[in-house]
Amino acid sequence: xxxxxxxxxxxxxxxxxxxxxxxxxxxxxxxxxxxxxxxxxxxxxxxxxxxxxxxxxxxxxxxxxxxxxxxxxxxxxxxxxxxxxxxxxxxxxxxxxxxxxxxxxxxxxxxxxxxxxxxxxxxxxxxxxxxxxxxxxxxxxxxxxxxxxxxxxxxxxxxxxxxxxxxxxxxxxxxxxxxxxxxxxxxxxxxxxxxxxxxxxxxxxxxxxxxxxxxxxxxxxxxxxxxxxxxxxxxxxxxxxxxxxxxxxxxxxxxxxxxxxxxxxxxxxxxxxxxxxxxxxxxxxxxxxxxxxxxxxxxxxxxxxxxxxxxxxxxxxxxxxxxxxxxxxxxxxxxxxxxxxxxxxxxxxxxxxxxxxxxxxxxxxxxxxxxxxxxxxxxxxxxxxxxxxxxxxxxxxxxxxxxxxxxxxxxxxxxxxxxxxxxxxxxxxxxxxxxxxxxxxxxxxxxxxxxxxxxxxxxxxxxxxxxxxxxxxxxxxxxxxxxxxxxxxxxxxxxxxxxxxxxxxxxxxxxxxxxxxxxxxxxxxxxxxxxxxxxxxxxxxxxxxxxxxxxxxxxxxxxxxxxxxxxxxxxxxxxxxxxxxxxxxxxxxxxxxxxxxxxxxxxxxxxxxxxxxxxxxxxxxxxxxxxxxxxxxxxxxxxxx
Length: 641
Fold this sequence. Notes:
Layout: E1 4-10, E2 13-20, E3 29-38, E4 41-50, E5 54-58, E6 61-67, E7 69-70, E8 78-84, E9 87-92, E10 95-103, E11 107-116, E12 125-126, E13 140-141, H1 143-149, E14 152-156, E15 160-162, E16 164-165, E17 172-173, H2 175-185, E18 196-202, E19 204-205, E20 211-212, E21 224-228, H3 229-232, H4 237-254, H5 294-301, H6 308-316, H7 319-322, E22 349-354, E23 358-359, E24 366-373, E25 378-381, E26 391-396, E27 402-404, E28 418-421, E29 427-433, E30 436-437, E31 440-441, E32 447-456, E33 462-464, E34 468-472, H8 478-487, H9 490-498, H10 507-519, H11 526-538, E35 541-544, E36 550-553, H12 557-572, H13 579-595, H14 599-616, H15 620-640
Parallel strand pairs: 11-14, 11-15, 11-18, 16-36, 17-19, 18-21, 23-34
Antiparallel strand pairs: 1-2, 1-10, 2-3, 3-4, 4-7, 5-6, 6-8, 8-9, 9-10, 12-13, 20-21, 22-24, 24-29, 25-28, 26-27, 26-32, 30-31, 32-33, 32-34, 35-36
């Protein structure tokens, strides 16, 4: 067997060569990465892959040859590799490298795992503990072993345990806290590509998720992920099997693997597998969405491996497309063609994207998504928000270019969240801030934009909305210009996405919002700054220090009440905040009042919320849901007191 990683150097040029023509699940390819060596520094130079090489063996010698696809221009595109007994030569781009066998793994990655005190990191799962498909060999699979089977050597560093200081009763993590934790941990490393990824084992996420790869919003992405122990813990074989899949799945995103039903959004676009990708037997699919048969069908057929196409990416994807901290997640997928309606749609579902008539220059653009049924009642999943991977938003800018909205945080919603749409529950609504994401601000200039949505239903149907017109007004004076400047900074966009943060990495953004409130307190757009500051003050904030201790800043309910009350007053007078966001703000305001020890005022806030929506004349069914939310919130706040 000759497959594996070979290394060699020709003067100042170093080659890492991957030969993949025999052994376990060979993809029939040869690929490599080239680096320039100068003194004590090494710089990435380019990559290549030969997709269909010819392989000839004569005695102890193997000769592999084919035409390569390169990331750089070269007249010498033919690649020839000659191997004998673990060494040989490789002719690549006009250079001849002496090479020697280095590892049976095609790539080597360091995994650093930190766990918050009280959680237990996953160890391993015996695949024989539960029934497996015919031909699936029994073995003991750790996360490292699962990746080793894919040809990736995963070295797990000595795990660290993060003790908690002043944590109180709540160890639920939100996106802002995870973002801050990742920036603190990776401040120890060079801000550059490296075969290294960090995994945090935390208690739970405020959204109830099983796991998340949350590093999506800077020049060096895909370095941080998390799994949530409370959602996946357990000693039963079923629980251990699910933990293994969650760990491998989230780390798969760090290698730039998309979900099975999203591969058409990669660059270049990849063909979807059976049933629009839901039929993939892959770590990257969701078990409950597998077709046919859902979760039972998935586990009955899953051989605990990546698909062939995913193996090609892991083993032979160009260096910058795979290495952590290099190209962004789904590189190149930001610019797309506008979503087109299916030529035939028998789904019985309708998606609408709605927005208010006009937005001020610099105002956070929020759209409302509505999913309803047509004809007979329908059952689907409730993951309608675009940060959950089942809904995508396309934005056509005034100049005609269409980009894909890519949220700062993507949530792996690994549950069914089934909803039935019928006369008693005719529609599902979500509010989504789409003004800022991984590509920065999407509405940076005045003019007319077209926003389209695409929802991937539980059966794989792709429901496309009509375009929604979004108008961004031109600023009317000097104050409008200055306010827009304070709103459109990159850090401010992140704060709007995260609904506030204590992170020192976002200090300049917080200072800009403070200036907005102090100097332009009467400007209509200041309400958004008050909302972000109030929501962040009202909650506790967890921070992992450089010494790997978890410190929790307690809530500041007084500051939360001050800012959120101003938001509620502005909304009551017909302000800018949309109804769904206002609902959330008033429930958080009630929580802040309760934290100050005044349950009476908390109840009054919730009663005022119901009355406000009554005055707005919202749909009776929606109003009934708001009344239930108010009563449930009162009960929850009373139980906490």
